[in-house]
Amino acid sequence: MTHHSAFGLAPTDLDIVIVDESKPMQALLRSMLAHLRPRRLRIFDHPQGALDAMLHEPPNLILTDWMRRPVTGAQFMRMIRDRHMQPLSFVPVIVITANATRAVVESAMRRGAHMVLVKPVAPSLLHERIVHVTEDARRFEVTIDGAAFEIEGVRAMLAAQQARSDALNTARRFHEKAQRPGGVEADAPRPADPTDQPIRLGPKVLARLRDLEPAPPRNRRAARVDGFAKVRPG
Question: Residue 64 is part of a domain; what is its CATH number?
Answer without folding.
Answer: 3.40.50.2300
